[in-house]
């Protein structure tokens, strides 16, 4: 009788492995390059702990991957930003480089054939044998406002998120906006259409830092999110990765979990994952919408904070693109608009090296800074309602001064 061996293909980490008869042990291979992407395997790790033939019931890896496939990390993270100054946040491989360097810099080697921020950006399950986070150390966030010190972000698990969700250090914020430059003889010359804080400013917004505070406006503080004990301990995941409740879509990849989406659409109807919001010590069980009428309602006139911020962003844009408004503050009474909108709807600063924007008093340029801080932050005020509302109110008040 002939004997046969059966080879069973197993898809693992992008390679096809075959299990068959075990041969003789070969000689040791050469030491690997420590800068290589391969991180090795934990002693005693067993593939079947996570990768079963039918359904994994320990970490639900397949389900988590499906959820992640609907996340902005997977489909909206600008993967083509794989150059040295961007790949450290926009690609898994670049993020791993930063991790190996203890996040000492955001600049990494250019990544060839990158993958979007995924499982192996936040976790190293094969090397650790579990899904603990790579890093939870506090984050120092650089300040781009003159006279304002760097911020220290320390929100538990959220520290890993803010390794990227912060203003990047290579942002072209020169010269820096300066709250002390309030005299009509103080001039700022802006020479870049990208004179604004980079998109991922969520960390600063949550803690109430990073926005431009005008010296003659009284700011009254932050919303509860900034100091809430549970948020300080669990950070961003407590809301963005809370499991959606059933009905209608618990763990189905529409919202919550590794989608990280608070808002989602279910059978054509909008919905929100508010499980985390209703954690003990946070909102009441009656909480029903991210566009809530917050503790800052006296400032919003009773409007939901997200509705208010969206309306005030429109107002700010209208003021800074109104020649009758900006010429009061432009050097020489120029009618040069501060903001312009492309046919595609993209709003940019109306400045370049050949056609600079000159504003006086220089502190008034803080209105441009705050417009982009609020617009790029993306939560429409939900992360820190009082801080966001007062940044909008103060910016509009400054532009409307007689």
Strand and helix map with partners:
Layout: E1 8-12, E2 15-19, H1 61-68, H2 72-75, H3 87-90, H4 92-100, H5 119-122, H6 125-128, E3 139-141, E4 151-153, H7 158-161, E5 188-190, H8 202-207, H9 229-234, H10 237-240, E6 263-266, E7 269-272, H11 297-300, H12 305-320, H13 323-326, E8 339-341, E9 347-349, E10 357-359, H14 366-377, H15 385-399
Antiparallel strand pairs: 1-2, 3-4, 5-10, 6-7, 8-9
Helix pairs in contact: 12-14, 12-15, 14-15
What is the SS-derived class?
A: alpha+beta
Low-pLDDT runs: 1-20, 29-36
Distance between the termini: 100 Å
Total beta strand runs: 10
Discrete helix count: 15
Cross-sheet strand order for the largest sheet:
1-2
Main pleated-sheet profile? 2 strands, antiparallel
N to C succession of SSEs: EEHHHHHHEEHEHHHEEHHHEEEHH
Mean of pLDDT: 86
Number of spatially distinct domains? 3
Anisotropy-based shape: globular
Could you characterize the architecture of this molecule?
- The protein contains 15 helices and ten strands.
- The chain is of the alpha+beta class and 402 residues long.
- It has three domains: 41-135, no CATH class; 169-217 and 294-399, no CATH class; 224-292, no CATH class.
- The strands form five sheets. A two-stranded antiparallel ribbon has the order 1-2.
- The longest helix is centred in the C-terminal third of the chain and has 16 residues, at 305-320.
- It is globular.
- Residues 1-20 and 29-36 have low confidence and may be disordered.
